[in-house]
Amino acid sequence: MFSIIQAAGWPIWPLIACSIVALAIVIERFISLKTAKVAPPRLLDEVLSVTKSTVPGPDVVAQLEKNSALGQVLASGLRAVNANPHCTEDDLRATMEGSGRLVAQRLEQYLSALGTIASAAPMLGLFGTVVGMIEIFGSQAPGSTGGGNPAQLAHGISIALYNTAFGLVVAIPALIFWRYFRGRVDAYLLTLELSSEHLVRHLKALRK
């Protein structure tokens, strides 16, 4: 592996840095976007059960907020009702939407960086290719000290090809994971939105 890096020349180092950052983001997102941390399947049913007859107190709401991202959104609605039992349905929705936007920002964290790496890696590989081609033509220029040197010609070609290949090796997995995480976040956001709407209707019926 080290011999390949040596053969690819200095243009490969930015690609190596991009690959390390992309790997770190993928690992972090896999940990942060676990279902148990974002939207536990039975959490909404448990909240509806607890609020069947009355809105729970601040201690229960605080525990719910710490449970998950969905818990944070649902807790914001319960807290709004505790603070003002006569708050309107629009105010309740606005409060939960504000909390949802904060959660959405946290779920989408680092995804733009991963997408940027997926877009930039082929360009960095192309840059390395151009550097290799410049070295090839420079070595073959009339009057150059290495003119006609096969070893120098082979070195320039290796720089060009290795950088092109490594750029694609970094970009393709980064793009795949970006699309995967993007779809996962969108699914979570839909779950949060539907759960919030369900709780709003439930609280409205409870206060009648």
Automatic annotation (TrEMBL):
Pfam families per record: MotA_ExbB
Membrane topology annotation: Multi-pass membrane protein
Keyword list, A-Z: Cell membrane, Membrane, Protein transport, Transmembrane, Transmembrane helix, Transport
Origin species: Rhodoferax potami
Regions that span the bilayer: 12-31, 110-134, 154-178
Chain ranges of the MotA/TolQ/ExbB proton channel domain: 66-192
Primary site of residence: membrane
The UniProt record lists the keyword Membrane: yes
Top-level taxonomy: Bacteria, Pseudomonadati, Pseudomonadota, Betaproteobacteria, Burkholderiales
Subcellular location: Cell membrane; Membrane
Protein's UniProt name: MotA/TolQ/ExbB proton channel family protein
Cross-referenced PANTHER family: MOTA_TOLQ_EXBB PROTON CHANNEL DOMAIN-CONTAINING PROTEIN, PROTEIN TOLQ
Family per similarity comment: Belongs to the exbB/tolQ family.
